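SAMPLE LOG
Freezer: B-3
Tube label: C17
Construct: single chain, 527 aa
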Amino acid sequence: MAETRVDLLHLLEDLRDAYPGAIEETILTEIIANSLDSGADLIRITADATAASLTIADNGSGMPRRDLRRYHDLAATTKTRGQGIGFAGVGIKLALLACKEVVTETRRGNVHVATSWHLTSRQRAPWKWVPPPDLVAERGTAVKLHMADPLSPLTDRGFVEAAVRRHYQPLLDPACDEILAPLYPRGSVFEVNGETLRKQASPASETAPLAIRAGRKRKPSAAGYLFREPTSLSEDRRGIAISTYGKIIKRGWDWLGVSPNVPERIGGLIEVPALAASLTLNKGDFIRTGQRGAAYLAFRKAIQEAVVRQFAAWGDSREQPEAARPRSLRTLERDLERVLLELSEGFPLLASLVEHRRGGQKRLPLAPQTGARNGLGFGPELSSTAPADENAADAAAAAASPEAPGEKDLSPPPSESELPAGGAALPKRRGERRPIKLGLAVQFEERPGDPELGRLVESTVFINRAHPAWQRAAASRSEGYHIALSVALALAPLAVEPAGEHAFVTAFLSRWGEAVSGRSPSRRRKS
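STRUCTURE (predicted):
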């Protein structure tokens, strides 16, 4: 009988390249994640430059002997996604690439065992039971890495402390204690070479707390703060960091899709425990498809709304420009709005792209814009100057509808009495300025050689204008159908499982056709 052989070295190198940071930071953060998942409230880290070693010991629950045996199998794990941040079971294996030996000791009840592990060839990483080196006192797990490179940054105390503070900032920030208390009821203490890392509040001169509630829950589902300085911030403090279970996942303005007028002066931190279930394998991003992707997009939209309100309070918000567009594009926007509003009934995962109003009403924010990523608008490439009568018609429609898009300025944040349970702003009275609309956006890009008609990035569908099918559609004046098909194909992985994508695209195009002909089911019901 033949045997499947695995090029273990090549596999580990591919895993290393899939992580966003340096391998040293990945190894350190993954071991700490395992300690936190085990219920540890004290994590001791010892960086020894003389012995070229790094030791991480915790007082968690420890492992049974059978779990320590499975610990050496690739991608083996006893954890459940969404109940921690060390679910994948591959992070610690990367230590084989940087170490000449990995010693793991665990103690739980009467079980006190240890193993030694190293990589000997491309296909083999043998391990063996060894006498425990007494790195664990009463209970818990300890990992000692003997570095292959004596100059590895993991043997430097300053590097280790900076990495811990950067990746686990919420655990060392008093502003996140309340939201993290249910996850870590005994708190989390880090010691580096015998010195306890003290908690540090934001040193900014101006800080604004944020509390984000999902649905009608009274307790916040996410919490954090924004801060701003009168001068420019350092690169690692700019933008908003989003974390889950105390671990920073992304940082900056790109992931959020909104930014202030002076982004170099504003930063922030948002902790969202529920997003642990939406983490990708490398824990450097969030899943964009299926139910987990919909959960991420829903929280992202709620964070957008809270951040935009604070920008308005600070007077540091971007104005939403009003673009004059051809009548055909405005008609297409209305058709797509109607389609998604109706499809959200049968495809609940699209709810993250639909704005829920008071009284159970739903509205998809479709705001005209030029280049901004908020609202379903078209970029400046397809914008043109509209006739005066069309602008007048838009103004009349805006006056007739209290929710019509087109306002340029942001309103000040509403008072607590004006906010519903979900935290979204109530409809404004006629004539008042309203915030920029947040929701699905459609923009255009040039991606020669890409076989996809469009792609979904965060909550924006980018249409590939370099695709031969777009060029044919433009030549035959059928851009509208091409855009509808591209949007349907891009949203299908988010709305349904792979087996149902064909049915979703069919339903989308059917509703789109009914919207074009003015025979949508909602209109028939009203009539």
